[in-house]
Each structure stands twice: as structure tokens, then as C-alpha cells.
TrEMBL record:
SUPFAM superfamilies: PLP-dependent transferases. It comes from Streptomyces tabacisoli. Gene3D superfamilies: Aspartate Aminotransferase, domain 1, Type I PLP-dependent aspartate aminotransferase-like (Major domain). Keywords: Aminotransferase, Pyridoxal phosphate, Transferase. It holds the Pfam family Aminotran_3. It comes from the Bacteria. Belongs to the class-III pyridoxal-phosphate-dependent aminotransferase family. GO terms for molecular function: identical protein binding; pyridoxal phosphate binding; transaminase activity. The keyword NADP does not apply. This is Aminotransferase class III-fold pyridoxal phosphate-dependent enzyme. Its cofactor is pyridoxal 5'-phosphate.
Length: 387
């Protein structure tokens, strides 16, 4: 195994089974999962309807056929995504990951505009591939390689109108910056961006890899900002654990490629069958509203009980807890200690943030209120032990 991927915990955890919102580890313990495989396992584990949909596709004998052939599940999923995108006459292209989806979006907007420069947001994270990293506004993730195309990073003080010109291909932004520690963009900031971009014909690309499929309490995170994106990038939760990503956008943008482009595994039969079931389950079970309600419950209880050194932030069931020392500086050591203590008590949470001082909470949307309250108790106890 390459050394690049960091493993959580001083004694890494081996997962062997899952059920509901719980994971079973090789150490024989059961853990309440508040991380969801980095916001992926939207329906939890061993969901009967998801298992049935994938098993039926496997029984057909076709688990892969590439994008050179049609298969009905992929077309039906594309129709479902386009219909829910809010983009008129939308086109869809499937990939295998969020990083690949970002690359596809960047390729399309650069061809559409005949321009190279991309505008991105400070604190953003868009993936691990070269183009996605170029647009990532966190130096710790970027390494030493020079960006393959010009990127200008924006903060709340920078005048966007001074940056928009014929050399700009698009602006890409997350409604909630997940890797930064679940930091929401200020309400209306995307609207302000689009008000400047639209008259110049510059597309707004919204990265919904972590915020999509109901996680924020709306179907898409952009819906909190009163905008209509030109392009949406998606992945993670759509597959419910199966590998899928993609891009949906105005047809004139996605059709701007002058050359053929494929994804060998993008939108494959198993992933498409899973995606269709996830979309249906989210709607049938009312999981969008459920995520909003439980997110408010978690944020309120944690904010009330964690004390002055912890700040709760985020939207819906995409939450972060940022730890600071007595002087108000980011406290990565405290965050790491609480992360370990949570595992010791049977709760799995993420660890991240731009300064490494945030716990990340992204449980399955099927989380129950009882489980939310149980997780709250475990987290509060962990913080009390480490403070």
C-alpha cells in the first residue's frame, strides 16, 4: 500500500461488517458511525432495498459494459439526476469519483469558454487529481507541483468583478466546504458570484460532492443560496457505497467538447442500480427533511454542551466541530485527542479542517433521533475527558 493515505487512530481500525448505522471491527467492537465513509454511505449499512437493487443487477450477469454501450439503469439515473438538478435541458456525464467529476467539469467549461483561468474559493477542496488539486484552496493538500492552468483564489474581501474577463473559464465553489471543517459559505455569497458571472457569460460550477442528495437539509446545498448553477459536480452519497460520480449541466456546456471522451467505469450497471435506489429511498423516506431536523438537533445540543473551546458549524448532517485554545488559536492537538477518545467510547467521527483542528460529522441520513442523542452523549463525554 502507498504511504499517502493517512490512517485514523494510533492503532488503525479494521472494519469487517456493518448494519444500520453501526460498523463492526476486527477488534470485536461495534461502533456508531458518524462519518459515513466520508459522507458516502447515505443509507447506512445492509440496507435491504439497496442490497436488493444491486443483487438483481448482479443476477443479470452484467456488472460492467463501459460507456460504449447503452444500459437502461444508466439512462434512467441520468434522467433522475437531470430532473432534480434545477438546470433546464440538462445533460449528464457519469464518472467513478468526485475528483474525476471535477476534472470532467473543468474540461467542459474550458472548452465552452475557450479559456483556461479558473476562479476558486480560499479554503476549498475539490479532489486529489491534478486539475482538482489546482482548484483546491488549501496548500497542505497541493504538494510542490505547479498548477497545470491559472487559478485565482477568492476570499470574502476580493472584488470578483475585477477578476472576471474573457480569460476566465468558470468559478467553482462548494456550498459548504467539507474538508475545511464543514464551513458554509456565507448565505447569498453564491448569489453574489452569479450576479457578476452571468452577464459575462462565465459559468458557475457548484461542487456538491459532499453536500448533495439531501445532506444539508435541501436536495442540493446550492438551494440555500438562491442560485441556479450552470454545472453541478456530484459523487459520494449517490452510490450509497458504490463508486459513482458525475457532472450535470447546461447542455451547451457539456456538449462543447470537440473530441470524444469516455469513462470506462463511470455509471456502470451496479453503481447505476444503486444510485437509482438511493434517489428513490431519499424521496420515499423523507430523508432530506430528516437530515435538516437531525442536523439542527445535533448542532443545538453540541453547541450548548461542548463549552467555549469548541465551535459547531455546518449545515444539516454535514457538521464540523472546530477546537480552539484559550487564546482563540486552532487547537489541532485537542481535536486529535478527542478523535481518539471518541473511538475509545465507540463513536467514529472524522478529523480534518484547514488547521487540523476540526472533527467532522457526516452520519448516514437514516440516522435515528435516538442514535443522534447517543452520539451526542459520547462526543460530549470525549471532549470532557480531553479538555
Amino acid at each position: 500500500m502507498a504511504h499517502w493515505p493517512p490512517l485514523f487512530y494510533s492503532a488503525p481500525l479494521e472494519i469487517v461488517a456493518g448494519e444500520g448505522r453501526e460498523l463492526m471491527a476486527a477488534d470485536g467492537r461495534r461502533y456508531l458511525d458518524f462519518y459515513g465513509g466520508v459522507a458516502v454511505n447515505l443509507l447506512g449499512y445492509a440496507d435491504p432495498e439497496l442490497d436488493k437493487a444491486v443483487s438483481e443487477q448482479m443476477a443479470s450477469g452484467v456488472v460492467h459494459c463501459s460507456t460504449f454501450y447503452l444500459h437502461r439503469k444508466q439512462v434512467e439515473l441520468a434522467e433522475a439526476v437531470a430532473a432534480r438538478s434545477g438546470i433546464p435541458d440538462a445533460a449528464v456525464f457519469f464518472t467513478t469519483s468526485g475528483s474525476e467529476a471535477v476534472e470532467a467539469a473543468l474540461l467542459a467549461v474550458r472548452e465552452f469558454r475557450g479559456a483556461e483561468r479558473v476562479l476558486a474559493v480560499e479554503g476549498s477542496y475539490h479532489g486529489r487529481t491534478l486539475g482538482a488539486l489546482a482548484c483546491t484552496g488549501q496548500p497542505a493538500w497541493q504538494g510542490r507541483v505547479r498548477n497545470p492552468f491559472p487559478v485565482t483564489f477568492l476570499d470574502e474581501r476580493r472584488d470578483l468583478s475585477a477578476e472576471v474577463g474573457d480569460d476566465v473559464a468558470a468559478l467553482i465553489a462548494e456550498p459548504v466546504q467539507g474538508v475545511a471543517g464543514a464551513v458554509p459559505l456565507a448565505r447569498g455569497r453564491l448569489r453574489g458570484y452569479q450576479d457578476v458571472l452571468a452577464p459575462a457569460g462565465v459559468p458557475l460550477v457548484v461542487d456538491e460532492v459532499q453536500t448533495g442528495w439531501g445532506r444539508t437539509g435541501r436536495w442540493w446545498g446550492y438551494e440555500w443560496h438562491d442560485v441556479r448553477p450552470d454545472v453541478i459536480v456530484f459523487a459520494k452519497g449517490l452510490g450509497g457505497g458504490f463508486t459513482i460520480g458525475g457532472v450535470v449541466g447546461r447542455r451547451e456546456i457539456l456538449d462543447a467538447l470537440p473530441m470524444p471522451s469516455i469513462s470506462t467505469f463511470g455509471g456502470g450497471p451496479l453503481a447505476a442500480a444503486a444510485g437509482l435506489r438511493v434517489v428513490q429511498a431519499v424521496e420515499e423516506r423523507g430523508l432530506v427533511a430528516h437530515a435538516g431536523r437531525l442536523g439542527r438537533l445535533l448542532a443545538h445540543e453540541l453547541g450548548r454542551r461542548l463549552g467555549d473551546r469548541a465551535r459547531v458549524q455546518g449545515q444539516g448532517l454535514l457538521l464540523g466541530i472546530a477546537f480552539h485554545d484559550a487564546a482563540g488559536e486552532p487547537d489541532a492537538a485537542l481535536a486529535a485527542a478527542v478523535h481518539e477518545e471518541c473511538r475509545h467510547r465507540g463513536l467514529l467521527v472524522g478529523l480534518g479542517g484547514t488547521a487540523g483542528n476540526c472533527l467532522r460529522l457526516m452520519p448516514p441520513l437514516t440516522l435515528t433521533e435516538e442514535e443522534a442523542r447517543c452520539g451526542t452523549e459520547l462526543l460530549v463525554a470525549a471532549v470532557a475527558t480531553c479538555s
